[in-house]
Amino acid sequence: MAPQTGSIVLNNGDSMPIIGLGTWQAPKGEVGAAVRVAIENGYRHVDCAACYGNEAEIGEVFADLFARGVVKREELFVTSKLWNSEHAPKDVRPACEKTLKDLRLDYLDLYLIHWPQNFAKEVEGNCSFPRNDDGSMRYDVETTSAETWSAMEALVDAKLCKAIGLSNFNSKQIEDLLTTCRIKPANLQVEVHPYFSQAPLVGFCHAKGISLTAYSPLGTGATIDGMTVVGNPVLAAIGEAHGKSAAQVAIAWLAQRGLVVIPKSVTAARVVANRDVDFALTPEDMAKVDGLNKDFRNGWGGPKVNRDGAEQPRDGLHPLYPFTQPGVAF
What we know:
By secondary structure, this protein is of the alpha/beta class. The chain has helices at about 30-40, 55-65, 90-105, 145-155, 170-180, 200-205, 235-240, 245-255, 270-275, 285-290, and strands at about 5-10, 15, 20, 45, 75-80, 110-115, 165, 185-190, 210-215, 225, 225-230, 260, 305, 310-315. Helix 1 runs parallel beside helix 2 (about 55-65) and helix 3 (about 90-105) crosses helix 4. The relative contact order is 0.14. It holds the Pfam family Aldo_ket_red.
């Protein structure tokens, strides 16, 4: 089945469409139109998050499309994410309920812990960025991932979420959670694109029965040797042979690896084109794209800061920050 109409089966038995619409950095006033175009042109998967700040606008579009019969709720797969400031067990359900209210839904198909590191909770609602007097992030270093996960499991029990999962966790953090969880994570969402193939983490998750979603599948501006992913001549040449663009080749490469892919755009033509990947890459094509990998991570969970004379991830001092833990390769 072509990726544009295909789906994977999660470990709870539900189907998740392979191609979804990402909504990160989709500005208010534009994201609703992009969601409308996507669903009217066949998308049945929308990826959201509380910290994106646009769930209420997306919810207005959902409500209108449901009311007009463009799509039924049960035909749409909606993902959202628990923000870092809401990890304390008592805050998890209210955060989810706020997202459901904003999205005008009764349940989520998938709810992810957005990042492993915890922020202190500062304000009402489901997303805050608390700061210390010196401008650094104010953290919660007491709540454990196991405690947060237990509260996530309770959301499944309450039928507020059909499946739960993780985002931006490393392999050790996932392994640790698997030793204590009652409900196994259904999905891990991480950065994956031709410059950052994440092959070890993909293999790890698939071996554990955890599906993987690729965010920033077009690199979000990642540049190597002066070339972005969508401007890479290797991808362009492969695309020319198939009558497709470099972006469509990158999306197809991810889908053929068994990943769910959530490209983001607010440009109507690109939204439609990103799902138009009904073609198969040859083994030679796949190998050429594999060869572009440089283990180039573009997203670090916030801006880098100068610390001890070097540029370091903002949250790198948090004990649960996933990308700089000693001895953890992926």
